[in-house]
Specification:
- The chain is an alpha+beta fold and 150 residues long.
- The chain has a single domain, classed as Phage tail protein-like (STM4215-like).
- The chain has 2 helices and 7 strands.
- A hairpin with a 5-residue loop joins β6 and β7.
- The longest helix is centred in the middle third of the chain and has 17 residues.
C-alpha cells in the first residue's frame, strides 16, 4: 500500500537522523525514535522526532496542488558528564542534526524545501543545560485531492 507524502517525508527525516553516527563522522551516535510528545518519558541520549500540526502554505499554492508547511521538532536530551562543557555538547548536537537534515533538503524528492529554525535549549530541574529542541519546517505539495500523489 502506498504511503501519504507527509508519511514519506517523516520516514526520510528519521532515516537521515539515523545516519548520525560517530563512525559516520559525527560527534555522537543518535538513538532515533519517532514519537508523540504527550506523556513521553525522555531517555538521555535518545533523539525524538515529533510531528507537529501542519499548516496550509497559501501564498505558494499552485493550481491543482495542496501546499503545506509541516513542522517537526527534533529533541535530544544528553547525558552530559561532569568533564563535558555543556554548551559544547549541545552545539555539537545541533550542528550534527542540522548537517544530517541539510544533506537532502528535498526529503527524497517529496518536499520543496526544509527550513532550519532557531533551536531551543533545554535545562533540567537544577537549571543545567541538558538538551536541545531543533525545529524544521518542511514545505511540500501534493495533488489537491490525493495526499498520496505528488
Amino acid at each position: 500500500m502506498a504511503e501519504p507524502i507527509r508519511e514519506l517525508i517523516t520516514q526520510n527525516i528519521v532515516a537521515a537522523l539515523a545516519l548520525v553516527t560517530e563512525a559516520g563522522g559525527y560527534h555522537q551516535t543518535l538513538d532515533v525514535r519517532r514519537s508523540d510528545p504527550a506523556g513521553i518519558q525522555f531517555q538521555p541520549g535518545a533523539c525524538y522526532v515529533f510531528e507537529l500540526d501542519e499548516e496550509e502554505d497559501t501564498p505558494h499554492r499552485l493550481t491543482g496542488k495542496a501546499c503545506w508547511i509541516a513542522p517537526y521538532q527534533i529533541g535530544v536530551f544528553s547525558s552530559i558528564n561532569a568533564d563535558d562543557i555543556a554548551p559544547q555538547v549541545i552545539n555539537r548536537l545541533e550542528a550534527d542534526i542540522q548537517k544530517a537534515l541539510g544533506i537532502d533538503f528535498r526529503r527524497g524528492g517529496y518536499a520543496v524545501d526544509t527550513v532550519w529554525k532557531s533551536p531551543e535549549r533545554t535545562t533540567n530541574e537544577r537549571g543545567e543545560l541538558n538538551g536541545t529542541l531543533c525545529t524544521i519546517h518542511v514545505k511540500y505539495r501534493h495533488s489537491e485531492n490525493d495526499p498520496y500523489t505528488l
